[in-house]
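The data are set out underneath:

___
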Amino acid sequence: MADLLEARASVKVIDGRARGETEVVVAAFDRLSPDAITELRGAAAAFGRPIVLVTDGIEKGGLAVAVECRVVAILPRSAATDNRVADSVRLAASGRVSQPSDLLARLAEHAERLHREILEPSEPAGAGLSSREIDVLRLMADGFGTQEIAAELSYSERTVKNVIYAVTDRLRLRNRSHAVAYAIREGVI
């Protein structure tokens, strides 16, 4: 990148140790991997300046990290000509860089997904249990064995075992006691 930019008279490439003179940081990676993200965060902390990122691939969550690290322009490596990189650096230095619409759309999609998964309340954990499953769990909590539950609900023992297995497997519970404790904690029984 330094060789590419030094060919442009309008851009001055300085040594990375000259932090006081740095107006824009150019970071280039094959892909924005976890190691590259670590380096990007280090550059953001060390320089505190806008970053022009040149990369071909951004892994899941990388776009949000890039924005967090003050990345103001992202160029694909295949399109990183001396003109495009230099123009991005000049615009970043002037504060007039605008993100490409496809990147903004991806960032908005990422933010929406985070909001849905983390911030919005999800349905109660026990809401997915059927009335049959709740009846079996209630009788288990009352101390009934498989045979007694089957007799009480007029099911076969095999049906009761299948219901218990289905609940413990779907909810990733360890055993019957764990299933009963879960149902009580969630207010299902």
Observations:
- The chain has two domains: 2-119, 125-185.
